[in-house]
Every structure is written in C-alpha cells, then in structure tokens.
Amino acid sequence: MVKGLIFDCDGVLFDSLHANVAFYSAALQQLGMPPIAHDDREKIYLCHTVTTPELFEAILGPERLEEALQVSRGIDYSRFIPLMVPEPGILEALSRLSARMPLAVATNRGGSMHDISRHFGLERFFKTILTSKDVARGKPHPDMLLLASDRLGIDPANLLFIGDMDVDQEAARRANIRFVGYRGRFAEAINITSHNQLFDLIEQL
Q1: 172, 178 in Cβ contact below 8 A?
Q2: What Å distances lie between residue 193 and 17, 162, 172, 183, CA to CA?
Q3: CA-CA distance, 22 to 16, in Å (whole number)?
Q4: Are 154 and 104 in contact (CB under 8 A)?
Q5: H-state helical runs in the chain
Q6: For the chain, give me the number of helices (H) and strands (E)?
Q7: Distances in Å between the alpha carbon of 143 and those of 2, 29, 58, 130, 148?
Q8: CB-based contacts of 41, cutoff 8 Å, min separation 6
Q9: Which residues contact 67 (CB under 8 A, 6 or more apart)?
Q10: pTM score > 0.85 for this model?
Q11: What confidence category does residue 185 fall into, taking pLDDT thresholds of 50, 70 and 90?
Q12: What 3-state DSSP class applies to 125?
C-alpha cells in the first residue's frame, strides 16, 4: 500500500536544465573557465545529477574545489529561477496528491532548493524538503531517501520515489523504496510520462 511519495526536483518537478547550466557557467566564468557548451553532454549531465561540490571537483579538480564553492556561494541563484519551467500539470497534481498523503522532495541540489520552493510556493505541498545539505552523502546513496522516510514517518516499503535519472533509481534500490521513472525507460521500474498517472498507480499498488 502506498502511503507517501518522494519526488526528485530537477527533471521531475521542473525542467531546470537551462537554469543549472547558466548558474554553473556563471561560476566557471568567474573562475576564468569557459561556460558550459550546450553540446557538452558530459558536463550537462553533471549539471543535472550531481551535487555542486561533485560537479566542481569533476570539472576543476580537487585543488580548486574550495575556491569554486566560495565563488558559487557568492552567486544569487534566484536570478536563474525564472529559467526553470514547471513540468506540465505538476502544481495541480501536487495539490491533489498532498490532500491524500504526505509528500517529500529529495534532491541533490543544495540551498537553492529552498529559494525555488519559496518562489513557486511548494511548501504548501511537501511535509519535508531534503537537499544535499541535509545528509553526508547525496544520491545515489540512500541517505536522503531514508531520512525522508523517517521525516514522513512512513516505512520505506510504503513509499514511492519518482525520479528521472540512474542515480535516483540506484538510491531507491539501496533504500528499498519502489522507484517510478519519470519520462524515462528504466528497467525493473514503473515508468510514467505524466504526473497524472500517479493517481491510478497509487490505487493499483
């Protein structure tokens, strides 16, 4: 029986690719590096999946990590939030879902998630919003999902995690939470293309 839902942010609640690339490009340019090219698939993938420290370490190396983090902390992410586009029907779906069961967010984003939440008024839908700042290890480690389970007061077996990347599926597997792939073709998972499909899914499981 499904008693609660956990959502990833990027690619699930929002199309945030342009915002993320713009933010990291701004930081890299301040560090004397070129912006991220729109055809650089490897770096764009990092923008969408890993934590900020992991991205900077991958691009700049560990020796410039602290410098990069200091620069990024000085950039106001709120100026990039208008580039984020809510997934179709997501706000209405969250309103209806939150009336039925507790919801949570588990994202590898850092502090910017709370700015995004305030901008779009997400607090009214979610009982807890967890970011990479709340755990020692981000996804694909299970820490964030297990903390969400604890905060919601719901056993992992009674939760669904909706994500769009391999790191999401792996985190769900390690946390023993059933995974729902959003707009993907994940093996050994339920796949959906619309958040409205969650209503029927909840009834079926």
Answers
A1: yes
A2: 18, 11, 19, 5
A3: 10
A4: no
A5: 17-30, 41-49, 52-60, 65-73, 90-98, 112-120, 143-152, 166-175, 197-204
A6: 9, 8
A7: 20, 33, 22, 10, 9
A8: none
A9: 31
A10: yes
A11: confident
A12: coil
pLDDT tens-digit series, residues 61-118: 999 999 999 999 999 999 999 999 999 999 999 999 999 999 999 999 988 999 999 9
**Dihedral pair phi/psi, residue 191, rounded to 5°:** -115, 135
Q: Which two tokens stand for residue 30?
A: 């301040």
pLDDT of residue 205: 87
Pairing of strands 178-182, 85-86: unpaired
The CA distance from 196 to 80, in Å, is: 28
